[in-house]
Amino acid sequence: MAATFKYQPAWAIDVSAPGSSRNFPRFLSMRFACNASISTPLSISHHSSTESTLILIRHGESLWNEKNLFTGCCDVPLTKRGVEEAIEAGKRISYIPVDVIFTSALIRAQMTAMLAMTQHHHKKVPIIIHNESEEATTWTQVYSAKTTKQSIPVITAWQLNERMYGELQGLNKQETAERYGKEKVHEWRRSYDIPPPKGESLEMCSQRAVAYFKDFIEPQLKSGKHVMVAAHGNSLRSIIMYLDRLTSQEVTDLELSTGIPLLYIYKEGKFISRGSPVGSTEAGVYAYTQSLAVYRQELDEMSH
Known about the structure:
Protein name: phosphoglycerate mutase (2,3-diphosphoglycerate-dependent)
Shape: globular
Radius of gyration: 19 Å
Mean pLDDT: 80
Order of helices and strands: EEEHHEHEHHEHHHEHHEEH
GO biological process, one term: glycolytic process
Strand order of the largest sheet: 5-6-4-7-3-8-9
Number of strands: 9
GO molecular function: phosphoglycerate mutase activity
CATH architecture of the domain at 46-166 and 203-278: 3-Layer(aba) Sandwich
Keywords: Glycolysis, Isomerase
EC number: 5.4.2.11
Number of helices: 11
Helix content: 25-40%
CATH topology of the domain at 46-166 and 203-278: Rossmann fold
């Protein structure tokens, strides 16, 4: 039975529809036309090809990144540099089509997604879908079919939030290392299954983030939608672990820079990593550690 989840009356997103109407080249000239249309005021149209794109973006620098504090699930905004990183990320993906955006429930990820879309070629307006209550849904409904067609729904989900750092949240990272010892803090930050006091391990973060990705984001890609996800270092590392089939050791070595988009092609049930676009016509390097970048580049060259 077709599953349809309605975030707002203006947008009903069917997660079981067939694929995309656009046939994209195997790789990316990045000069994609973004002509996704909306067939009625109440639905986003479905494409008819088997390829779709997935963009992952870690939020730009936050005020607590700047202060070297453990942020976790605390809700802090971007710095001026973070705003600039988000805008630059938007320029890098400006010709990649986007039909729907998923973000965490935290403002730094939402700001990043919104600012990035100001640079998009098709100038569609991202609109956060409020479905917390029937009243919120009613009050934020869009009644213009034309406006809906020129908009992109943004779905927020706490499951995409940053790893919850428990009693470390708000603490200075350097001072915490001096208090508990560098080895212990490194263990909390870089092990896969050891949580900080009253916090989440990467494994625990992965369980919620990947479950949400499988249940809500992957069906959009299967139906041919082009998706952007703006989230956090650990929730995105978790998703990348699933997409790239990384081991628990590989994912702990994975580094993601703030404001750098990562691109995947979803085709025939498989995710194909395309690295980080550095502009509208050029693909960049992988945002992995140096050794993993070299390793995965060699794999790509062997398989193409």
